[in-house]
Amino acid sequence: MKFSKVIGMFTLTGVVIVAMMAIQSEAKSTRKLGLSSTLSPNSCIEIAADKFRDTVKEKSDGQIEIIRYPSCELFDAKSEIEAVSMGGVDMGVLHGAYVGSRSAILEFISSFGAVGVWESYDHYWRFIDQPEVREFVESEFKQKLNAKVLGIVSYGTSLVGNRVRPIKTVEDYKGIKMRASGKAQATLYKTLGAIPVEISSNEVFMALQRGTIDGAASGPSRFYFSKWYEVTPYITQDYTVPYLSFWLSINLKKWNALSKKEQEILQTTGREIEVWTRNYVEKETETLYEKFRGGLVKEIYFMPQSERDRIRETVEPVMHKLALERIGTEKGAILWELLKKAR
């Protein structure tokens, strides 16, 4: 064999080896992050998590791969928070009520600790968009959950479903047993004259069916996808409760291990998903209203502004006092002023 051919073969082999090493190196450089969520399939939170995965992949040219664990595939809503905090999973879309059990400040900011005091969707969104509120979020997640928030994801406004009668006035709450999740919501119902009953979301359908409770509040997708409408023939829309926000979050150690470019991709995508969910839940709500009107329930009632104002005026002093007690006078007063400023 001629020397030139031997050299050529070695050169070709070398090129192939280098190319293979480059491919292997590229494969090794792909960042993989697990993302858990715990809502019903096809609900806004699940769709948003999938959209986050796809957008991150596109922005990073495939260099960041989000591996999805949807609809309680790995954890329920409570254990998911522990998993993200401890690094058992890299990322999660954390339930506002359960996050609130670790931080009264975060419970307030998610709207769940300040139920009944909001004038509109926009009032709430103006509140959480204030830089001072975001600073509270950053600090609390770092200290209480060992995590960083990438987006405050909207789940939808509140429907109040009742198995006995429609709720059209403040007085209609009196004496009925309402499912409550956490102290703030229980305080709201007590103030309105209802009887709060603490049960998990997984028990709501059966509790309504058996009459353990008379009513429950949640987002429209929960009523539809979990079929709560089958046991709540009377549904009322209540815009004073923007129930509720979830937290798209990443374990802090995992976040700190990312490059600046990777962090920027996740952060900007998280904010985009946050804004996207605000628009999506409004459209989703209208779509589900049409389904409810189509015969799924006996009545869907839209509470007029006058009655919504009565609810807010009734509960606001009590919720203000509760916020100061749970958060602390200084920080509670700051957050309350930020809430008023956003009106």
Provide structural commentary.
- The protein is of the alpha/beta class and 343 residues long.
- Helices cover 55% and strands 17% of the residues.
- It has helices spanning 3-29, 44-59, 77-86, 96-100, 104-109, 121-128, 131-145, 183-192, 204-210, 220-225, 252-256, 260-296, 305-327, 329-341; strands spanning 31-36, 64-69, 91-94, 147-154, 158-162, 177-180, 195-198, 215-218, 234-238, 245-251, 299-302.
- Helix 8 links the parallel strand 6 and strand 7.
- The longest helix is centred in the last third of the chain and has 37 residues, at 260-296.
- The chain starts with a helix and ends with a helix.
Average pLDDT score: 90
Radius of gyration over all CA atoms, rounded: 24 Å
Q: Which structural class do the helices and strands define?
A: alpha/beta
> How many β-strand runs?
11
In DSSP terms (H or I, runs of 4 or more residues), the helix count works out at 14
Low-confidence stretches: 6-12, 14-19, 21-27
Element order, helices and strands?
A: HEHEHEHHHHEEEHEHEHEEHHEHH
- The 3D shape can be described as globular
Distance between the termini: 86 Å
Largest sheet: 5 strands, mixed
- Helix % is 40-55%
- Strand fraction: 15-25%
| Strand arrangement in the largest pleated sheet | 2-1-3-10-4
